[in-house]
Every structure is written in C-alpha cells, then in structure tokens.
Amino acid sequence: MLTIRCCDLTIAGCVECGGCDETGQCIVQDDMQNVYPQLLEADVIVLASPMFFYGITSQAKALIDRCQAMWCRSRLRQNAGARPVRPRGRGYLICAGATKGATLFQGAELVAKYFYDALDLTYEGGVFVRKVEAKGDVLKHGEALKQAFDLGGAMALNRA
Length: 160
What we know:
Number of strands: 3
Oligomer: single chain
CATH class: Alpha Beta
Strand order of the largest sheet: 1-2-3
Radius of gyration: 17 Å
Strand content: 15-25%
Largest sheet: 3 strands, parallel
C-alpha cells in the first residue's frame, strides 16, 4: 500500500495549456510527474479529504485537475481506434466535514467519479462523516468507523 499526501507535494494546478492534448502527458514539471505512474499502476485508489466549503482540499483538487492529461491519454487511445479500456480497478472516497448539510458531499463525489473515470477506474462510493469539527472528532462516530473498517475489508476481498 502506498500513501500519497498531497500536502507534502508541490503540484501546480492545471493551467489548460493544451500541452497534453496531443500526447496525453502533462508538460508541467513538478511533483505530479512522480505521481502519474503511481496512479496508473494502482488497482485501488482511496481519495480522502476533509471538506472545506463543501469541497475537497485545494491540494487534492490540484492533483485531480492535473489528471486532465490522463483523460486526454484515454481520448487519444480511443481516437486511434484502440479498444476501449475496461475499468482496471476501483476508486473510493472518504470525507469528513463539520456541517450537517444534506449536500455536503455531493460535489466531492462528482469530482471523485470523474477523477476515477479518467484513470479507468470505477467509483465505488465511500464513507462520509458529518459533524467532524476538530482533530479526533471522528472517533466519536462509531458507525462511521465501522463503515470505514467494513470498506477496508471489502477492498481487500475484491483484490483477488
């Protein structure tokens, strides 16, 4: 298992320069160049983020936006007549937010769904916890902890 902490990396946001349009490879040189191979090799990816203003963190969003190159790569394969790539794995989302708003996680789920689609993964859902304000508050949510444990078990069982 590999962990990528977006907050420890220097990743610029996508500037829509078009550099990946013809090659499917991003031309911006930063830490994302080391992340691409890891994303492409993974058969399971779990995106985890606290919620800020009903969205994932800007660092996670920058990583996701830079996967525009992966979407271009997929489109180039299709335009070249290559057979469609079946989903090669699965993606999950884990988010915690302070508010109890009904739509708190909707935007994050849409972002995750299309992020995983660009990586030829299926979005399988996740664990979403409301009313988590301070560090350690998630420990007060026994049901969410059980859901996370069960999700981990399901991911492990589906690896075979």
